[in-house]
Amino acid sequence: GESVGLHLPTLSVQEGDNSIINCAYSNSASDYFIWYKQESGKGPQFIIDIRSNMDKRQGQRVTVLLNKTVKHLSLQIAATQPGDSAVYFCAAGGNQFYFGTGTSLTVIP
Amino acid sequence: SAVISQKPSRDICQRGTSLTIQCQVDSQVTMMFWYRQQPGQSLTLIATANQGSEATYESGFVIDKFPISRPNLTFSTLTVSNMSPEDSSIYLCSVRPAGLYNEQFFGPGTRLTVL
């Protein structure tokens, strides 16, 4: 299996600032990683993914960084908006995904 | 992407009864999974639903308690058997339409409360 943890359970940022959410995974065999956003009462929503042969991938306002040496993953959200307030999960694996504990992001207007 | 629907969206059940949750996808998908998410917690993988064969269960989950069917590439069911209050949770269907190393999508979830 896989043990996936997050460094902080909650994060508060000012609107317009950048957010960084971190994640650690335990299984060095994990070769595919996904960040999800979950709003209250909804299923997780795919944000961005990265494979183990990459160390950085960018999307719209989001960047995922992968450090395989220390088995660490981060999600950077640029110019955080109130609509970004949600719980963020990282998932690690390959055939199956194992999820971290989640970080609750609150954006302060 | 894939559009996933689950039925029921929520239910309140009595201890000792069973509930079957349905997952329907709008397109054929390679991989389907069932997860559980307890209130305020992360997602725990229950099993991989294999088309035409028995599901593959994760450690701590057994077929007698969580029987799964997957008769075709667009549909799966998860049954929560002989329920107890500890089974109160959100149950989520998830699919990976394009297979390995591709996006995995989630349904809206079924919120189960066991009294």
In words, what does this structure look like?
The complex is a heterodimer of chains A (109) and B (115). By secondary structure, chain A is mostly beta strands. Helix content of chain A is 0%, strand content 56%. Chain A contains no helices and eleven strands. The termini of chain A are far apart. The model of chain A has no long low-confidence stretch (mean pLDDT 91). Chain B has a single domain, classed as Sandwich (Immunoglobulin-like), CATH 2.60.40.10. Chain B has no helices and eleven strands. Chain A binds chain B through residues 1, 31-32, 34, 36, 42-46, 49, 51, 89, 91, 94-102, and chain B through 4, 33, 35, 41-45, 48, 58-59, 92, 100-101, 103-109.
Please name the defining characteristics of this protein.
heterodimer, A: 109 residues, mainly beta, Immunoglobulin-like, 6-stranded mixed sheet, 5-stranded antiparallel sheet, 11 strands, B: 115 residues, 7-stranded mixed sheet, 4-stranded antiparallel sheet, 50% strand, globular
In short:
Chain A is 0% helix and 56% strand. With 109 residues, chain A is mainly β. In chain A, strands 2, 4, 5, 9, 10 and 11 form a six-stranded mixed beta sheet that branches. Chain A has a five-stranded antiparallel beta sheet with strand order 1-3-8-7-6, with no helix packed on it.
Structural class of chain A: mainly beta
Query: What is the number of beta strands of chain B?
Result: 11
Number of helical regions of chain A: 0
The appropriate CATH architecture of chain B is Sandwich
For the sheet with most strands of chain B, the description reads:
7 strands, mixed
